[in-house]
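User: Please predict the structure of the protein below. I'd like the answer in structure-token form so I can feed it into my own downstream comparison script.

Assistant: Understood. Taking the following sequence of 319 residues as input:
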Amino acid sequence: MKSYGKTIKEIRLSKGILLKGLADKQLSMSLLSQFENEKSTISCERFHHLLSKLEVTFDEFILMQTENTFSASQLAIIEYMEYMYIETIQDWIKLEEQYEKLYIYYQENYSLELDHVLQLFRFDLAMKKEIIQDTPVLEAYKKHNHYLEPAKHYLLNTDTWGIYELKLFARISIAIEPSLLFRCLKIAVKKSQRLSKIPGNKDILYQTFTTIFSVFCFFEEVAYAKETFKLWKTWVFKEEHIEQAIFIPFYEGWIAFLENDVSLADRMMEQSLHHLETLGMSKSLKGYRIFKQLILTNEFPGIIVNDPLFGDFLDIKNY
């Protein structure tokens, strides 16, 4: 296992921060250098102060330090998610039982992430019951989006966004009103330029764009969807991100559909499907064909959750 000092050095270098950029009254350059090179230790107070300056939470640090993919609480979340795809009220009852089990786990093993995810799952649970009972989605949303208020309050009152806050932003974006959501997206774009340099987070901005764009589409906020797409496309071509570029026509087609130009939407989406077929990306091709059908028949009642914790790209949350 790597030392704490070595992990701190890797984080600092990945963010392009010089030692003098971290030095202050509590942390001299000499002490920092010795700590990074395993020649000295620092107090817990100074260590947490150092994490704060690096804008990394202790949980994030531990994941990087141990090189584990998921923490114990995240594994509990993943286990719960195996029950989330339901069709009947009997399935819903089983899901509610799993929620109660996860809540008991949370009471015995508190973590901030689990606290916020439980709010999301409570919202999801309430929405699923309403949908099974044929309640219109937007009516159900207005009735239950209060479940996400505590997580929203935390996010909007946190001055310094780290990796966790950026992921939380995407996870609870469904609860943020459109004008504020777009302002937060512009903040997220600035933050992600630095955070994407941390190992395992190079695509965090694109994961955020996908979710926020789908939220605006869900609420038929065409103007905000177009502005989000414009930002997204600019970054894709600026960074020459080939994989993302393949999907740009598809999402441009989604905008065309929202503007009632179904013929253009079909042509644009087919461009992306053609690229996927040419490249032999059969799994993505299959998923996007289904995705296209759902959008063009107006049967896509959800948002895209592109989050490693929540599964593959086309695992859709039906909000």
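That's the full token string. The domain at 4-66 is CATH 1.10.260.40 (434 Repressor (Amino-terminal Domain)).
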